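Notes to self after the call with IL:
- keep both proteins in one doc
- input above output, always
- annotate only the second one for now

Protein 1:
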Amino acid sequence: MDEAYWARVGDLIDQLYTATDALEGLFPGRKFTLDGHLVGSVGEVVAAYMFDLELKPASTLAHDAITPDGTKIEIKLTQENTVAIRHEPGASSGA
């Protein structure tokens, strides 16, 4: 995947945040947060790109990807200050 592909990914993520900001403007007092599976999946694909990881199928127990040297990785992306680890991975990548 080339630079243009990843520029498009960045544009789509920007559009998600623009949409949530617009919804919050239309409905004061309501939060339209990007969370759960969406944020997790974004974190996984971006980490795979940045660190040359092989993504495993969604919901693989205890890890999300494998490094070129075979290390199993659990990837967590959060917009908060903490992450939850439910199973012990070989290593973790938090962003």
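Protein 2 (the one to annotate):
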Amino acid sequence: MTSPINGGSCTPSTASPEEQQKFFDDVRQTFESLPCFIAKKFNDRVSSAYRLKGFAGAQTKFSDIIRHDLRLVE
């Protein structure tokens, strides 16, 4: 069995492009009420996770931001 790189999932993401677009729209909508520089930082973190770990990584990063960081800035 191969081990995932950087803690990523062993199974590839099966989300359709429409599901991915809806996810990123929801991410933007969640952060739009925050000051611009904070919203940009959070969006960049989710986008970076997507580039490095794929869709599942972006979902995990978004969940982490909601649980840990968002409540600190609201």
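Annotation: Residues 23 and 59 are 8 Å apart (CA to CA). The mean pLDDT is 87.
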